[in-house]
Amino acid sequence: MSDVSAFQPVPDPLTAPFWDGARDGRLILARCPRCLAWQHPPLEMCRACAVRLRPEAAPLWGVVYSGTVMRHPAVPLYATPYTVVIVEVGGAGGPRIVARVADAEGDVAPGTRVDIAMRPLPGGDFMVPVALVGTPETGAPRS
Ligand SMILES: [Zn+2]
Fold first, then answer.
1. What DSSP line would sit under 33-101, residue for residue?
2. What pTM, to 2 d.p., does this model score?
């Protein structure tokens, strides 16, 4: 496997809450205090209200919007094949994050309910969100 240190995040003031939260097992996304819209990746201001966004803990579950099976090692952090999904956090229409599926192989159908947990990013000290298809870890109610 090649040098994975080049694939480590470089937090800045906008993204630091996400990385700090991940280290604590939380999913911290930017949210507008006025209209309550989530914004990920984070921006400084709400696109609708032009007020400063605040970091807020998001639900640790979601539904799969889409996904793909990675068969080529585009990023040399994980052995191929592995599955990557776009998750709508908190349910359909929620903010979207990208996550590797940590407990299953192959395609995951859109609409599949997943739990979100944090796992170490190989090669450094960061934690990243992963999707868990079959093993609820959070105790969140299944919908
Ligand atoms: Zn807003």
1. TTT--EESS--SB-TTT--B-EEEEEPSEEEEEEEEEE-S-SSTTSPSSEEEEEEEETSTTS-EEEEEE
2. 0.88
